[in-house]
Amino acid sequence: MASAAHGLSTNEALSGIFGSISITSWICLLIPQLITNYKTKSADGLSMLFLAVWLFGDVTNLSGALVTGLAPTATVLAAYFCVSDLILISQCVYYNTINARAARRRAQSSATDISEDEPLLRRQRTGSSTTAVALPGSQRRRSSGREINPIKRVITGEDETPSGSAWLHNTLGITAIWVVGTAGWFLSYRAGAFDQPEADVPEDLSPDTPVAILGMVMGYTSAICYLCARIPQIIKNYREKSCEGLALLFFMLSLTGNLTYGLSVFSYSQEPQYIIKAIPWLLGSLGTIVEDCIIFYQFRIYSQKSEHAIDDSEEAS
């Protein structure tokens, strides 16, 4: 590799650019889902098991960074992931608790009304109750505390972006991430962030030491958590035949961060020994891309079913 004094090599520059884009994606990752939950006043679309396993993966990732003595930026970023996960989980627990209490109050109120009016309106109330149960997704929309235009929440789970332009809006957002990440790397390079000579690797971080082995174990544990985390969310979407309440941009940022991270690793060096050491983190990043693509497919097929259901209801009315 070229020394820093003589400028960066092409591989180092590409690795730095991809790494900067990946960091930008991860910093912004949870913001779309936090906003979606806040606007809908609900977190029913998210699987709590998905978030819990993801948090455990980030905790082991941070532990591995601390044990192996990774760069301070990598450690700080891992800590940021854990804090962000806790914020999202706290928001979900809050809305789930509030909506569960509201649902119980409504159920108790309905039961009281039915018991009082049952002798006179038994047949009518029985019919209306059956109809209410048959409406798909009605419980989730009621738990959010307000009605959401189904045409506008078809793909994103949000109520501002029409379904026809949702992918366009989110693609523009991803493009902005690439631009900001690339610009951030060039600005840091111009500021001399890469002028420091490379530090020697401490002897206690050689591959055969207990510390290095423990770091690799934590790395593989984190990778397994990342790979398994999305499975509960995929199953939840499949069972409900809906991606309502999920922010599409959340998963697009995840795919962007994982893809650019993998490209950053491969661009830096293609030496077999280096790639072998990076296998745990590559598995955790590139492996989840397949699962993200499954979720994208679910967004597409379930949004089409929602559009057909909307058209049928409009024709019937």
TrEMBL record:
<feature type="transmembrane region" description="Helical">
    <location>
        <begin position="48"/>
        <end position="71"/>
    </location>
</feature>
<protein>
    <submittedName>
        <fullName>PQ loop repeat-domain-containing protein</fullName>
    </submittedName>
</protein>
<dbReference type="GO" id="GO:0015174">
    <property type="term" value="F:basic amino acid transmembrane transporter activity"/>
</dbReference>
<feature type="transmembrane region" description="Helical">
    <location>
        <begin position="245"/>
        <end position="266"/>
    </location>
</feature>
<keyword id="KW-1133">Transmembrane helix</keyword>
<feature type="transmembrane region" description="Helical">
    <location>
        <begin position="278"/>
        <end position="297"/>
    </location>
</feature>
<feature type="region of interest" description="Disordered">
    <location>
        <begin position="113"/>
        <end position="147"/>
    </location>
</feature>
<dbReference type="GO" id="GO:0098852">
    <property type="term" value="C:lytic vacuole membrane"/>
</dbReference>
<dbReference type="InterPro" id="IPR051415">
    <property type="entry name" value="LAAT-1"/>
</dbReference>
<feature type="transmembrane region" description="Helical">
    <location>
        <begin position="172"/>
        <end position="191"/>
    </location>
</feature>
<dbReference type="InterPro" id="IPR006603">
    <property type="entry name" value="PQ-loop_rpt"/>
</dbReference>
<feature type="transmembrane region" description="Helical">
    <location>
        <begin position="77"/>
        <end position="96"/>
    </location>
</feature>
<dbReference type="Pfam" id="PF04193">
    <property type="entry name" value="PQ-loop"/>
</dbReference>
<feature type="transmembrane region" description="Helical">
    <location>
        <begin position="13"/>
        <end position="36"/>
    </location>
</feature>
<feature type="transmembrane region" description="Helical">
    <location>
        <begin position="211"/>
        <end position="229"/>
    </location>
</feature>
<keyword id="KW-0812">Transmembrane</keyword>
<dbReference type="GO" id="GO:0034486">
    <property type="term" value="P:vacuolar transmembrane transport"/>
</dbReference>
<comment type="similarity">
    <text>Belongs to the laat-1 family.</text>
</comment>
<keyword id="KW-0472">Membrane</keyword>
